[in-house]
Amino acid sequence: MHPEEKKQPFSLKHTVVSTLAWWYSVFLGWTTRVYWFKTDEAIELEKSGKGIIYAAWHNQQLFLLYPYRGQKIAALISQSSDGEYIARVLPHFGMLAVRGSTTRGGARALIKLMQAARAGYRLMITPDGPRGPIYQVQPGILFLAQKLGWPIVPGGISLSHKFKAGSWDKMRIPLPFGKAVFQYGKAIWVKDEADIPRAKEELQAELNRCSEASEMFCNKVHFDSTKG
Predict the structure, then answer these.
(1) What is the pTM for the complete model shown?
(2) Exposure b/e, 49-68, CB count within 10 A at least 16 = b
(3) How does pLDDT run across 200-224, given as a tens digit for each residue?
(4) Does the N terminus or the C terminus of the chain have fewer Cβ atoms within 10 A?
(5) What is the DSSP letter of 70?
(6) 22 to each of 7, 19, 65, 85, 94, how far by Cα in Å?
(7) What is the layout of strands, in order, in the sheet containing 152-159?
């Protein structure tokens, strides 16, 4: 059993666009070579079957679906019209869309995420979403980690073939026939509410470090593969 989300009214536009997005996500998965760099700690946490909160910056989220398919993950998705497209795609990959925001109406979103966690889902959050500021961790993910007693596993995702949108977060739109690099960082634990400022600083630094490391390796792989 999993927490039920309120059924959205039928929309032809959302139905058509989300179906095309699903097909495109699968096509990307088939045509993109993925490199994983996980810490030993993250590997052990994943093997343990215990709760994890995955975190990545908002502009890296569009290539998170296919690589994490079938892993019983609940992702926090904004209640905006754009969020509706993503929310309709997630179930095709065995994932649960939890609608809401950790900033606006944050308490309700946190309750929904805790319900998903109790139902056996691991969680996935973009801590600078849904509206920024870019690369600034909002406190909701830290309160959630503290209440659940779960670690936050930060990650950086880089793409060799992408288009950068003109949105507030400079969203990376993945393009096919490229390479993707997933770089995991040190798990962040939040002991209590007094520990939140320290954890926020550490999480922000780890997300930036992972993003830089994945970008560096992605550029190296792309360069090496085009030499000679």
Answers:
(1) 0.90
(2) eebbbbbbbbbbbbbbbbbb
(3) 999 999 999 999 999 999 988 654 5
(4) C
(5) T
(6) 19, 5, 9, 10, 12
(7) 33-37, 179-184, 152-159, 53-55, 122-125, 73-77, 96-99
